[in-house]
Each structure stands twice: as C-alpha cells, then as structure tokens.
Amino acid sequence: MAETTTKKTAATKATAEKKATKACATKTCGTKTTAKKTAVIYVNAENAGFRAGDVYQILAASEKPLTVAEIAKAAKVAAEDVYLGLGWLLKEGKIVSTEDNKVALA
User: Fold this and answer.
1) What is the pLDDT of residues 43-60, one digit of tens each?
2) In the beta sheet, which residues pair with residue 105?
3) What is the rounded distance in angstroms from the CA atom of residue 83 to the CA atom of residue 78?
4) Do 56 and 89 contact (CB within 8 A), yes or no?
5) How far apart are CA 61 and CA 65, in angstroms?
6) What are the Cα distances from residue 62, in Å, to 21, 41, 74, 93?
7) What is the DSSP letter of 77?
8) What is the dihedral angle through the alpha carbons of 53, 57, 58, 62, rounded to the nearest 10 degrees?
C-alpha cells in the first residue's frame, strides 16, 4: 500500500512539473528577464568640456553647494556625466568639495 502512495505522489509531482514548464513556455511564468540598457559615455575633451560647463552653470545659478544627484537633476544628465564635468573643474581649481559631500564654486 505504501508503494501505491509513493507512485501516486511521484505521478502528481511529475504532472505539476509539466504544467509549470508549459506555463513558462507560454509566458505565464512569474519570472521575467529584461535587458538593462547601459548608458554609453564618450570620453573626449569636447564632451568633458561641455559637461564641465553644464556643471559650472548649475552651480553658479544655485549659489549654494549641491550634491551630484541635485546637479544631475538640474542639468538633466546622468550622474556619470556630472562626475566627468566635476573632474575637469576640480583639476582647474574651479570647485571645492564640502564636508557633507556637496560641491561648490571655489
């Protein structure tokens, strides 16, 4: 009798696995994979200069220290572009960083 119960349980599990496989094949499976788009940043002197100008203009207009996220939002660019511009401006000595992770004009 225990042998019959084991066969029925195994048959039930096999049927459940077939249904799950079929459901996933018809795209009703709960897991979805999506391709994440990656931003492409072209690093050259012209692009870095334009990003530096954008960052400088935002800081000049705000007249107060801003975080990278605030600058990116105001300039409508990615944070990576802001970092590119900040690097340029830091090298030229045009900006300084504050203790609370903000940047301001020097």
Assistant:
1) 888 889 999 999 999 999
2) 95
3) 9
4) yes
5) 11
6) 57, 26, 10, 19
7) S
8) 160
Task: Name the helix (H) or strand (E) containing 105.
Answer: strand 103-105
Both tokens of 91, joined, read 């090298």
Q: 10 Å Cβ neighbour count for 68?
A: 16
Per-residue pLDDT of 39-98, as tens digits, reads 676 788 888 999 999 999 999 999 999 999 999 999 999 999 999 999 999 999 999 999
Structure tokens at 23: 């459901």
d(CA 10, CA 4): 10
What does the block give as tokens for 2? Answer: 């225990």
